[in-house]
Every structure is written in structure tokens, then in C-alpha cells.
Write a structure and sequence with these properties.
By secondary structure, this protein is an alpha/beta fold. Helix content is about 50%, strand content about 10%. Helix 3 links the parallel strand 3 and strand 4.
Length: about 240
């Protein structure tokens, strides 16, 4: 099962070997040598899964995972810990921190591929059943209702006297327009003839670019700054 992965490890030899094996297994792999680089790459690439070492200088894997989970677009991102510390207490600490799998070094690369493949399948299944919207059903329904209510009062929302101009790709603009129209990710995916996972990535990018944390905040921000267009565009290639 193909997927976009982010590998974070401060050991160059191991990093290169794991990257090569994962790429030979059909995955796209971006690499970082520390947590700071890893967080920046995660924001840029929005990977489907992160593999990270625990024992790293300055910011360790536990802190890195905490930083990821503090950002809304990464709350459900699968994370695999790689570590030389394989004691039961270490594994418990890893799972308590919120990792999805824990693989002690040295490890069989085939086992890593199996773990990654399984986690990606689970993530895809959550998307297919509607759990991939990034919120629980009740919260998502509330946000959609808030957006629809906001749209009925669109004229009452004052536009900023100094509107912010942001550089969106054509596809990001299309997704933003449809989010502003109150559509859910599945509906947006059908409208733009793309996958729900791609829509999730674009919505996450919009959260990052607008410094918002929910669809309701995103819609209000877009209306206040005139960021939505009068007509949505379709047929662009994914960027």
C-alpha cells in the first residue's frame, strides 16, 4: 500500500538504509535528521505516517510526538517509534505518549514495512467510514451547522479593514470555497473528483496557512478577509 512517509532519525547510516528499504517497498519517504526539521517537513508535506527515533539530541521523540499532537492537522497522524530502548517500561512510555507502534532496534525491515502498511490501512478505513474528518461525528455536525448558520448571516460578518492576502494553490482555493459552502470532506472529494485523504490534506494546509484550528474558524476567517471566490473551480491537478 503506497503512502507518503516522514522518517526522523539522527543516525545517517540507519536513516539512509531505512529510507532506501521503504522506497523499494513502494513508499515515498522524506527524511529529517532531528525533530525540528521533522516538524517543519511534516507541516510542508503532511505525511500519511511518521517514523521517528526516540533518542535524539535537543528534542527527543516523546517531545516531537507531543509537538505533533498539539497541531490539529496531526492529531490522528499515525506515528511509529524506533528506539534502541526496548524495555517494557519504555514501550509503555511510548504508547502512553501516543505512538501507534513501537519497534526496538535492531529490527527486521520487513516488520517495519508490515507495521506501516497495517497502520496506513487502518487510517484509510477510518477515512472510508467517515472518521477521517478530523473530528468526532457530533463535533463535525456542530461545526457544519455553525457554518450553515454563519452563511445565512454572511452579510452581517464585517470584512476586515486590512484583509489578509494569502497565496493559495488553485486546488486549495477550490477546497476553501467548498468548505465555506458548508460541504463535508466526502462531498468535496466527490465534487473535485479526488480522494477524501487528499481533501483532508488540503484542509490541513488551509488550517496552517490561516492559523485556524477548525472549519468554523476557517470559514469565519475566509469571510472576514474575502478569501472565498464567488465560483468554485474544478478540474485542476493536485498540487
Amino acid at each position: 500500500m503506497a503512502g507518503q512517509l516522514l522518517l526522523v532519525d539522527d543516525e545517517p547510516g540507519l536513516r539512509e538504509a531505512v529510507q532506501a528499504y521503504l522506497e523499494d517497498s513502494g513508499f515515498t519517504v522524506d527524511v529529517a535528521s532531528n525533530a525540528r526539521e521533522g516538524l517543519e517537513l511534516a507541516r510542508q508535506k503532511l505525511p500519511d505516517l511518521v517514523i521517528t527515533d526516540i533518542m535524539m539530541p535537543q528534542v527527543d521523540g516523546y517531545q516531537f510526538l507531543k509537538q505533533l499532537r498539539e497541531e490539529p492537522q496531526f492529531k490522528g497522524l499515525p506515528v511509529v517509534f524506533l528506539t534502541a530502548r526496548g524495555m517494557t517500561s519504555d514501550r509503555i512510555q511510548g504508547y502512553t505518549a501516543g505512538c501507534d507502534a513501537y519497534l526496538p532496534k535492531p529490527f527486521d525491515p520487513d516488520e517495519l514495512v508490515a507495521i506501516v502498511t497495517n497502520l496506513l490501512k487502518q487510517s484509510a478505513a477510518r477515512v472510508a467510514t467517515g472518521d477521517g474528518e478530523g473530528h468526532n461525528i457530533a463535533d463535525l455536525a456542530r461545526q457544519i451547522a455553525d457554518i450553515k448558520s454563519m452563511l445565512t448571516q454572511r452579510g452581517a460578518i464585517a470584512q476586515s479593514s486590512n484583509p489578509i492576502k494569502l497565496d493559495f494553490t488553485p486546488r486549495e482555493q477550490s477546497v476553501l470555497d467548498l468548505v465555506v459552502d458548508g460541504l463535508m470532506n466526502k462531498e468535496i472529494a466527490r465534487r473535485l473528483e479526488t480522494s477524501v485523504r487528499n481533501v483532508e490534506k488540503y484542509v490541513s494546509r488551509l488550517f496552517v496557512k490561516t492559523s485556524t484550528n477548525s472549519r468554523t474558524e476557517l470559514v469565519r476567517f475566509a469571510l472576514e478577509n474575502g478569501l472565498n471566490t464567488s465560483m468554485t473551480r474544478g478540474g485542476e491537478t493536485d498540487e
